[in-house]
Amino acid sequence: MKQIPITHRSNKSEATMPYLNTPVNLSHAATVARRICARIAQSAPQETDCESLEQASLILAELYPYSYDELDPSPPEQMIVVSHTLDLTRHLVNLIQIEKIGNDRIGQSIRNLYECLGRSEEGNHMGLLAGENPNSFQRPKLG
What is the sign of the dihedral through the CA atoms of 103, 42, 94 and 114? Predict the structure, then answer.
């Protein structure tokens, strides 16, 4: 397990955070995207439009073709899908912060999605921004 320095916005302190080095798995990424949609739907106020839920639905639509296919797409196709999904997910994290709907479960799911996209290091940070508890038992641990 690798360690990275990461600055957490809430306290501006430097901390060493471990992360998992994982390969791309679009099939599981689609499963995680479904979880994100469900968790945002549970957390969002029912009386207002939720841009976060709309954005999460776009991520699910991007990954849906890989939901039931364990075969990896060609490397060029995988690179395009991963890149586009990462852009959509970065925007989703911004919306979660703006709409103040982040929580530990949403943050964990965001981190898991990044792990499935082969970007565990970035996901470690983005999960925190989406509300994941930095002391969660679900986070990667040192040693």
Answer: positive
